[in-house]
Amino acid sequence: MKNKINSLSLKIGLILLLIYFILYFNAIHEISSFIRLTGYIAFLFLFVNLSIYFANKKQIILVNVFITFTLILSVELVCFFLLSMPSGIKKDFSLPYLPEDHIARNIGDVPYSDSVYHKVLVNGNDTVFDVKNTVDHFNKRYTPGKDTLKKKHALFFGCSIAFGEGLEDDQTLAYRFQKESGEYNSYNFALSGHGTNHMLARLKFQNLTTQVSEKNGVAFYIFFWDHIFRSIGSMSRYCDWLSNAPYYEIKENHLVRNKMFKNGRYYTSKFYELIYQTNIVKYFKVDFPLKLNDSHIDLVCEMIKESKNEYQNQFGKNPFYVVLYPTYIEYTPEQFQLFKNCLTKKKIDYIDLNDFLKYSGEHTLGGDPHPNSKTNELLGKELLKRYLKR
Length: 390
Known about the structure:
- This protein is an alpha/beta fold.
- The protein contains 15 helices and eleven strands.
């Protein structure tokens, strides 16, 4: 009788498992809460029955394995209910099929060249922004007002903050610096979602002297604390938007490029893809690596150092500065000091704007945390002032 019950239970589990896989593979973008629940119940049936089966066979190691699987899945199921049975996303992490010399194959996702993007963000009944972003022939943001009589350049690298997310072309930090200085033409190489690794990859891939007509000038890397997580490809950033991003690592005390995060560290990235939507990860807000350490900061600083070297290889001994942007991402004072110490150790100059203003709601677009035009105007003036004092 007991064997019949176990056999029936196993058959139920296998039928549920078959139903789950049929539903899963036919889902296009979303894995509904019903499909997920079906999968959890099916695997529970399977693991429990396999535990019993191997116990009868006295195969203790396999019994312990499937008991462990059962316990983990039970916690996963509890967290599923605690999170109110969320649906999942069916996401494709595969890399785009592109020619070897394509810019996106080398530096990651970029906007189309010679394009104008109309971006709108609505929060409830309020329009947070309704703007147009111009992208030039070299896949960088256009900065209006170039004056061919000016003899100096100011190159800006960074993420959405430097790019000017939610702002018009004449409201970015690069434009404000250009307007305030009177003698520099600004070039905005920053792009939303990018990190230190993207800056280095672009400098390695493109000869910027073909885009920048002035030989003399300065380069500014607008550093935002989240760039560290992006540049090391943490699980949350990788799974959200950075699978097709440049992967750098330290090997034998040297910085080396190893393809993209997706294919340069295949097993780590595959592990992230498998667990990032689990309820245990979501409920306990787990991210990998679990915390930043000295090696992560050293890796990012090494990328900055190599970016500086590449910039100076192309433009001569022009100054290169890391601009420490006032941040709203949490970090400890010890971590921030460690980062500054690392920059100093590697002979990288920086301008610390954290002491200039405490970033708050008045500096944002309202309904979006990115800096508004007034904030860029203030910081553009301060950046120029501090740079000229050097």
